[in-house]
């Protein structure tokens, strides 16, 4: 069955892995729609929880890297089913404690620092000591949570389950993109985005087109020749998206329409518009597929970013020439772990999409990462990979923070300037930045930039759960053109002033990510959202993100291969 089909009307609840899921299936072509009301993926701001092996993981090839062992002369695949797995609720509570500790720290530090502005020197010194000691205690608790996850006998399962899921999705994408008969395969087709947006926006668009192709069981064809970055198109730096099907031939593509309609289902090719789909299907971001939902909710703190990360990883597989340049740049810069990636976007972003942020705003979170890491291991060099389109920033950072080793390629910064951005040199530079940022142990950036969001998505393919390996100093993660997103209240709240909203457990709070001036989490213990006709602030810990789950093809024929 495709993304939509004729279904029997069913309304009820399921109890899966300790978590209540509400499920409603509508007949006559409507998609099943299941909502998960308790999974938390508020990862931004929490510190990277990883051991030395996780900080320097092998680069995963598309074909996958299945663990094998020999038994009586036969190789067999080792899967997560051979390990004892934790209840979903256990994993959820573990992440919730981590997030709760972080949110109370945001609350204390933000409001005590605000109070200090009006205090005399003696009292101010006392408050500074309180903050210093509270910071030590916060790091101790987060370290204990880290150690718990390494000694609860589930660590082997987490690693193997993560590999199993990645391998499964990669197999499905390879199957989808390489049909046996291209002329008979139904297709999703997308165009390059010349002069609409830059590289990262284009990459986001390409990965999104592949996601829609997956959800509608169609092969994705990307028409990229004559791209503003390179006349050769996408394949000038990346591997082909298909080995067998790269054109729609003589088929006349229809424009996007309701995927449940007869017109859509009979069309040989469907062309997607930029950014948003109208009508927007249930499977559109931030939804995850129903057949993988229970596994993703258990293994990952932000299921959608893991899901989208698989598509981003597929479309951004470097070709041989680009892979060689990536390797050479890594060696030339001395890129080693541990390392924190800092992305500072200036130039055009400041015109309408983002505010100016000083290097100090980024470095406070870099320092916090290393303070946490020093509780687990000796840190001899504090490295920072600095990716920026401001070629003066490296000198400023080195002068202000002499205790850090900054790695940065000023030629990439110059190529990212507005005058030279749309060139092959500019293209290779931004590809380099996004790849190296994704390989860092932690990223500090602004989620208003697609460079930040794409690096964060790519990072997910290199770890079991990298949902908390980033801190954004402006907005939360969002997906351009996404469906409505909500948080679910888990504790009651009575507004303490006109700027706040009241709610009860179970209420849905709408979350807006339209621009940097109206982001949800304010990193001071409060978030902003809407309830009915009201909008305002509320304590962040009193609500959790709701995971959207939608029916998509299950590709059983691939899983059984």
Intertermini distance: 18 Å
Percent of sequence in beta strands: 15-25%
Structural class by helix and strand composition: alpha/beta
DSSP E strands, number = 21
Quick one: biggest sheet? 5 strands, mixed
Q: Order of strands side by side in the largest beta sheet? A: 1-2-3-21-10
Shape, please?
A: globular
Determine the mean pLDDT: 84
Low-pLDDT segments, ≥5 res: 1-49, 56-76
What is the radius of gyration? Answer: 24 Å
- Residue share in helices? 25-40%
Number of helices: 16
Descriptive report:
With 561 residues, the chain is an alpha/beta fold. The protein is built from 16 helices and 21 strands. The chain has helices at 52-55, 88-116, 121-150, 155-177, 199-216, 262-266, 290-299, 303-315, 320-333, 349-352, 359-373, 393-400, 410-415, 424-438, 450-459, 556-559, and strands at 10-16, 19-25, 33-36, 68-71, 74-77, 187-191, 219-223, 254-255, 269-271, 287-289, 339-344, 383-388, 405-407, 442-445, 470-472, 485-489, 508-511, 526-531, 534-539, 543-545, 547-550. The chain has a 5-stranded mixed β-sheet, with helices on one face. A 5-stranded parallel β-sheet has the order 13-12-11-14-15, sandwiched between helices. It has a 4-stranded parallel β-sheet with strand order 7-6-9-8, covered by helices on one side. Helix 5 links the parallel strand 6 and strand 7 (219-223). Helix 2 (88-116) packs antiparallel against helix 3, helix 4 (155-177) runs antiparallel to helix 7 and helix 9 (320-333) packs across helix 14. The chain is globular and about 80 Å long. It starts with 9 loop residues before the first strand and ends with a helix. The model is unreliable at 1-49 and 56-76 (pLDDT under 50).
């Amino acid at each position: 069955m495709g993304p939509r089909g004729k279904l029997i009307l069913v309304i009820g609840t399921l109890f899966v892995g300790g978590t209540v899921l509400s499920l409603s299936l509508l007949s006559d072509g409507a998609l099943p729609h299941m909502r998960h009301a308790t999974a938390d993926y508020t990862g931004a701001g929490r510190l990277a929880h990883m051991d030395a092996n996780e900080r320097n993981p092998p680069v995963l090839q598309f074909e996958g890297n299945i663990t094998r062992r020999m038994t009586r002369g036969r190789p067999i695949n080792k899967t997560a089913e051979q390990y004892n797995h934790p209840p979903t609720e256990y994993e959820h509570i573990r992440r919730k404690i981590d997030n709760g500790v972080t949110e109370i720290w945001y609350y204390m530090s933000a409001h005590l620092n605000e109070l200090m502005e009006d205090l005399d020197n003696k009292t101010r010194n006392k408050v500074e000591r309180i903050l210093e000691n509270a910071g030590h205690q916060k790091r101790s608790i987060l370290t204990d949570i880290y150690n718990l996850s390494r000694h609860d006998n589930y660590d082997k399962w987490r690693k193997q389950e993560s590999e199993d899921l990645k391998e499964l999705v990669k197999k499905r994408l390879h199957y989808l993109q390489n049909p046996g008969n291209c002329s008979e395969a139904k297709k999703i087709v997308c165009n390059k985005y010349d002069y609409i947006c830059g590289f990262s926006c284009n990459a986001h668009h390409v990965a999104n087109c592949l996601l829609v192709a997956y959800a509608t069981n169609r092969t994705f064809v990307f028409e990229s020749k004559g791209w503003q970055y390179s006349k050769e198109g996408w394949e000038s730096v990346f591997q082909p998206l298909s080995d067998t099907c790269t054109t729609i031939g003589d088929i006349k593509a229809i424009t996007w329409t309701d995927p449940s309609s007869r017109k859509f289902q009979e069309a040989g090719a469907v062309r997607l518009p930029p950014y948003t789909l109208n009508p927007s299907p249930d499977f559109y971001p931030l939804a995850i597929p129903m057949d993988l939902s229970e596994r993703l909710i258990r293994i990952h703190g932000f299921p959608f970013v893991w899901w989208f990360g698989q598509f981003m990883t597929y479309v951004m597989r470097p070709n041989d020439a680009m892979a060689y340049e990536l390797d050479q740049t890594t060696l030339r810069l001395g890129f080693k772990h541990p390392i924190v990636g800092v992305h500072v976007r200036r130039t055009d972003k400041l015109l309408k999409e983002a505010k100016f942020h000083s290097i100090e705003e980024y470095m406070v979170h870099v320092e916090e990462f290393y303070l946490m890491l020093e509780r687990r291991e000796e840190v001899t060099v504090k490295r920072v990979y600095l990716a920026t389109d401001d070629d003066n920033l490296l000198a400023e950072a080195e002068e202000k923070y002499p205790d850090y080793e900054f790695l940065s390629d000023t030629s990439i910064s110059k190529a990212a300037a507005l005058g030279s951005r749309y060139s092959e040199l500019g293209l290779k530079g931004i590809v380099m930045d996004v790849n190296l940022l994704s390989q860092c142990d932690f990223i500090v950036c602004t989620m208003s930039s697609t460079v930040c969001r794409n690096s964060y998505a790519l990072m997910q393919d290199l770890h079991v759960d990298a949902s908390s390996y980033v801190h954004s100093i402006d907005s939360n993660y969002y997906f351009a053109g996404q469906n409505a997103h909500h948080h679910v209240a888990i504790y009651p709240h009575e507004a303490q002033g006109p700027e706040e909203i009241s709610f009860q457990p179970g209420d849905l709070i709408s979350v807006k990510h339209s621009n940097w001036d109206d982001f949800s989490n304010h990193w001071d213990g409060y978030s902003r959202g809407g309830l009915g006709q009201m909008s305002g602030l509320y304590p962040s810990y009193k609500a959790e993100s709701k995971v959207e789950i939608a029916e998509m093809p299950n590709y059983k024929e691939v899983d059984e291969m």
